[in-house]
Amino acid sequence: MGDVDVVIAGGGPAGCAVAAALAELGWSVLLLDAGVDRHKQLAGELLHPTGVRDLRALGFGGVMEAWTSQPVRGFAVRFHAPTTHTLLLPYGRGVTGLSLEHANLTVPLLESVSHRPGVTLHGRARVTAVEHNDEHGVRLRFSHAGAEHTVRARLLVAADGRASPVRRMLGIAEHHLRISTMLGVTVDSACLPYPDHGHQFVGGPLHALAYAIQPGVARVMVDLPLGSTAGTLKARPELLLALPPGLRSEVQRALEQQPAPRMASNDDRLAETVWAGSAVLVGDAAACCHPLTASGMASCFHDARALQEALHRHADHIPRALERYAHERRPAQRTRVALASALYSAFAGQDEGMRALRLGLLHYWEHSPRGARASMALLSSEEPRMRVMAREYLRVVGHALVAMLSTRGPGRRLRSAGPLLRSAGPPLRDAVASAVEQLGSWLHRRVRRPVYTLARAGWASPRRAFESNR
Q1: Which residue from 89, 104, 430, 467 has the highest number of Cβ atoms inside 10 Å of its Cβ?
Q2: pLDDT in tens, 375-412
Q3: Phi/psi zone of residue 85: left (φ > 0), alpha (ψ -120 to 50 degrees), beta?
């Protein structure tokens, strides 16, 4: 087989987006799709407005117009305890996201990108070995049509999901933590309190997420402890107490019907680096987190556009382009992963500290419209700055303390202050540390690096040379 500019491993949303982005630059693209049955996957179905914009910018506007998708105007968060209360968090400025069944989203994307000039699609094809990878290019083997093929390329893109075999072939380590198991069923969308919103059901024994995926049909995803199965919910229906009665009955009915509910593992995965030599990770292959923020697809489309911009600027120097890509995507990704972890602890935690934090969230969103808008900007990936997340988290803790003082039974409530601070401390500490890191990186790129470059060129004479220009 002849050489190509880029080989993309993975034909899901991330792979399709990268193929479209690089084909737009005039690159020859070999897209390898493993051919999994996407009708059986429990994967990305809700797309925030940022993802909608990026997908249109990548030339998929026509595909999106043909989708039978449902509008998503924001999130409805239903608190089961301490009182049953629902708060609406709109996206703002009148923008909307969309949602639809996973296969109905991904299959048209793959079909569309396969017809783009410069794109060659091989179905039921997998990378089997990366034989060579350095700054000058890659050589790899892949299986297709019962045979092994070898190809050389300027760039290899791993868009093969969170378990990413290609990431392992490249020797890139990752931090991996299994969190829980997700069970997904379909129900009548009329049971949703707000059919044009995504729903978060918090404060009960189990956390759940729900949204419409087509007219009259909604997806409900229930977060189960590790080791649980559908039988766990059948045997213990009281675990669904956070859901409204009508929706709870629909979920129980769906559990009794065939086919069996879809299941997926919820994991935190963060690669130690997103590039090596002339290979790069995008989407879930680089980082993934709990799906309660529904930010996975918006994130992978952002990765595709960031990679496109980096390669456009440094088309003749792949390592420099990949370094720029890593810098551009890092702030938003770190914030997204940290937010998902903090929200999951707050929504699903059953200890006294997390119950107090949920009370703070309810109080904050109820009494601060600005805070609700800021929280929604973070959740929808519109706001990528970690310092904003740290600030909002600190305000929620403050509102939790205020709510304790304003609630009857002050002695009992104030006793929750200690558990609250102990539970909220680690996420807040990590957020502040990451915010400081982001600020330092920004200062380095905007101040230290330019001055260092000028000093080396003889155009500036700082009192002391900077130690590093990384």
Answers
A1: 89
A2: 999 999 899 888 888 899 889 988 888 887 765 544 44
A3: beta
